[in-house]
Amino acid sequence: MKRTEGILCTLATFLILAVGVTATALALPSPTPLLIGTQASATAFIPAQAANETIYIRGIQKELLAHGYRPGAPDGIAGPRTRDAIRAYQDDAGLEVDGRPSKRLLDHLKFTLPKVYTFGAPVTGNVLDVQRELAQRDYYLGPHDGLAGPATRRAVRWFLRDAQLPADSAIDSRLLQQIRDTPASVKADTAF
Fold it and tell me: I need a labelling partner for 157 at 20 to 30 A (CA). Which of 67, 141, 166, 171 fits?
């Protein structure tokens, strides 16, 4: 009988921990953890939730930059500039304006069509495609506006240096193909 109780207790503990870890991994609110032995059990899930929030906020910041808004550096912190940029985007997109980052907002920024930009209609061309490719590798953090400004040129130089490619000032289809042909492992170091 004692062995059965021990197995049931172990199984119950496993299920409680598994549900909490699964909820955290999915960025869902975790159930109130039961105290099993120590107070540490109640706080074990907080760092994972904070990490998920940081990832969402950084993703929102990068998308806001790509849409021409100015949230500040994509550092994963929802500071005043980020909240202001969120409010501006929400207003332009016809969303409820609350200035709060969320998974729903990130999905709206990434997937809703037509896209909402601060600089008007989307542009096309080699410069825009280069900006998008470099943004995927975390080299370009500015607006995807198709303009070969200082931020775009700096990102190109940075990428070419890291990819060990010859420096070339032309942002054209040849450069675009070089970026696409470079292994995906060539990414910017984005440690803040």
Answer: 67
